[in-house]
Amino acid sequence: MVNPVQALRALQEIDTDLFRVTEELRRLPEERARRQAALDALEASIADRKAAARDLQVRVKELEDTVVVQQNRIRKLDKESQSSRDVSVIEACRYEMRELRRQVDESEREALSLVERIDTAKEEAGQLEQKLADERAVFAEFCANVESEMGDAQARQESLRARRDARLSKDLDATTLDLYDRLLQARGGEALAMLDGGICQACYMQVPPNLVVRLARGTDVIQCSSCDRILYLP
Ligand SMILES: [Zn+2]
To answer: Which tens digits make up the pLDDT trace of 3-20?
Structure first.
């Protein structure tokens, strides 16, 4: 009967690489999705600026239309005041004209400041569009690399799995294998640790002497009391 720890060490030799390659196969699509989301957000922010510019343009048009109406009214009042001989009518016309001119000034000032904001929004949208085009090109290159890296990683993963299956000892019971697999996942692909001078070489904690004695007997699976890794002797 093979010592279970020796059988696990044979597996661990492959599993360190297998864990890394599996992580890579998980990480690469995540990275791609993250970059895609960043591009989508950039696109949305361009659309927001363009929509803001359109809304402001509508407001500017409203202001311009109002000014046209007010100026027509001013011209009408001017004629009225010139043709009238009634002082109170003339006074009333002049008063309303002053008030309208003040409103026209106000509208023109507002329209001017809105036009500046429209220009800014359009300029920002233009800059972001350039940025988006650049980042899309980078992303396309990244995606091509991801495809090729994933192809390589899948081939490595398959070959490692085949080698692992060949090494999988029939002497390993299901409980031990299950413990080993759980530790692999929980401890970043390193389920085993060497015990040297009573100290676990993965977490550098002292292991109780009774465990060292049991490990030396070479029949039991002994775990580090601190990091839970399965221990082996040098
Ligand atoms: Zn440990």
So the answer is: 888 899 999 999 999 999
- Is the pTM higher than 0.70? The answer reads yes
CA–centroid distance, residue 207 to ligand 1 (Å): 8
Give 174 Cα–ligand 1 centroid separation in angstroms.
23
Nearest one of 111, 129, 133 to 61, comparing CA atoms: 111
Ligand 1 midpoint to CA 6 (Å): 18
Q: Tell me the Cα Rg of the chain.
A: 39
Give, in words, the CATH class of 10-171.
mainly alpha
- Residue-wise pLDDT for 90-133, tens only, equals 999 999 999 999 999 999 999 999 999 999 999 999 999 999 99
Q: Which of 223, 217, 220 is nearest to 180 (CA)?
A: 223
**CA 70 – ligand 1 centroid, Å:** 85
